[in-house]
Write a structure and sequence with these properties.
Immunoglobulin-like, 5-stranded antiparallel beta sheet, 1 helix
């Protein structure tokens, strides 16, 4: 019984590893990257790349470090003044070169459309 509970716990922890979720909070979009907790002495270095649907002038790349023993980091963009359309967010880990992406929509009339 204990072994099966341990196996289920391990499987669930793998399902949550390396995920990216974006959500609307007031007048901004917040994207949070979740990873396994770092247990080494080194930070995990992430690059958040916000890709505009129409203009590369509105794109942004930002480097964020996850300190040892932490498991998440976030970045945000304010929505006022942003181009309407389907935005893409990519997060790349420098240590593994793994990239994960998600999408969200900014519309002039309805700003509650978010999807993965």
């Amino acid at each position: 019984m204990k072994k099966s509970i341990f196996i289920i716990f391990m499987l669930l922890s793998f399902l949550q590893a390396n995920s990216l979720k974006c959500e609307k909070k007031e007048n901004r979009v917040v994207c949070t990257y979740f990873s396994d907790r770092s247990d080494g002495d080194n930070d995990i270095v992430l690059k958040f790349h916000w890709i505009s649907p129409k203009s590369p002038l509105d794109d942004r790349v930002r480097q964020i470090n996850i300190p040892p023993y932490y498991g998440s980091a976030y970045d945000y963009r304010f929505t006022p003044g942003r181009i309407s359309g389907r935005w893409k967010v990519e997060v790349t880990r420098d240590d593994t070169n793994e990239t994960i992406e998600t999408y969200f929509d900014i519309n002039e009339s309805d700003d509650e459309f978010f999807s993965n």
